Amino acid sequence: MSICLREVSHIYGKGSPYEKVALTGIDLELHRHEFVGIIGHTGSGKSTLVQHLNGLLTPTTGTVTVDGVSLAGTGAEAKAARRRVGMVFQYPEHQLFEETIAEDIAFGPRNLGWDEETVQERVRAAMRFVGLPYRQFASRSPFRLSGGQMRRVAIAGVIAMKPDYLVLDEPSAGLDPVGRREIYAQITRLHEEQHTTVILVSHNMEDISRLASRVIVMNRGAVMLDGAPLTIFTQHRDELAAAGLEPPPVSRLLSALNERGWQIDESAVEPDEAAAHIKARLTRLPAAPAARPPKETRHAR
């Protein structure tokens, strides 16, 4: 079970004076239960790529399938396949439009044709999951919430439809550090507890290295690198630099120490881990020789 892209290209404004090639020759398979990070410089094709995953964009050439079903179809099977992929855009609070939080979250499930009992059950479950108690928030306007809370409502509206795959395009953009931690804690819970496949687009290398089990690097509309975060960030620094990217600060620090001969473990992705590796290396250093007392000064008589 997976999302497969085969020889996918996408050209905006094809045949017009504004024609632009956004994707070319994309071959990818995104498996169930993965946590995939997609990184790349602005204009590298990240957002264009993920909008193909649920049929928002149609390939100029190539095919996209979800669990073996082509998204190019117009029948019930293709529609059901598209619904298995939930999408949370950058600044998802712009997706909010209903008068109350509960109604906004209920919009997607109702469009799926679920009966009202099931809709309300999904609304309550989604609100509970993102930490918005139903009794306290259901009847409130989504536009009277903090930025982080609005982001939670938008995510709840997507997960209420129970997607098998969740695509998030810069979900923490514009949030303060506390808001960003809260959003990613919820996304991690969704992945771990409900086994939802997560596909995360982000410019934050630290978040990607900490959360993702697989990293795809986009450059000029093509897949440049695809592998484990530790491999990408420690063994492909030249390629990342060519794509206008830098490894996370932790990786850069450990690499700089090794360049100075420290012979330190570079596998850390969190600052606390890096500190532990540095401490472990320091304990292996030979003890400094004890200071020798100064020789007595002999005075001539």
Treating each run of at least 4 consecutive H or I residues as one helix, how many helices?
12
| Largest sheet: spatial strand order | 6-7-8-3-9-10
Q: Can you count the beta strands?
A: 10
Distance between the termini: 96 Å
Structural class: alpha/beta
- The backbone outline, from C-alpha atoms, is globular
Share of helix among residues? 25-40%
Please state the average pLDDT score.
87
Low-pLDDT regions = 287-292, 297-301
Q: Largest sheet, described in full?
A: 6 strands, mixed
Any overview of this molecule?
This protein has 301 residues and is α/β, with parallel strands linked by helices. The protein has a domain of 38 residues. Helix content is 39%, strand content 21%. It contains 12 helices and 10 strands. The chain has a 6-stranded mixed beta sheet. A 4-stranded antiparallel beta sheet has the order 2-1-4-5, covered by helices on one side. The N and C termini lie far apart (96 Å). The C terminus is likely disordered.
Topology, please?
Blueprint: E1 2-12, E2 20-31, E3 35-40, H1 46-50, E4 61-66, E5 69-70, H2 76-83, E6 85-88, H3 101-111, H4 116-129, H5 134-137, H6 147-159, E7 165-169, H7 177-194, E8 197-201, H8 205-211, E9 214-219, E10 222-227, H9 229-235, H10 237-242, H11 249-259, H12 271-283
Parallel strand pairs: 3-8, 3-9, 6-7, 7-8
Antiparallel strand pairs: 1-2, 1-4, 4-5, 9-10
Helix pairs in contact: 3-4, 3-6, 4-6, 6-7
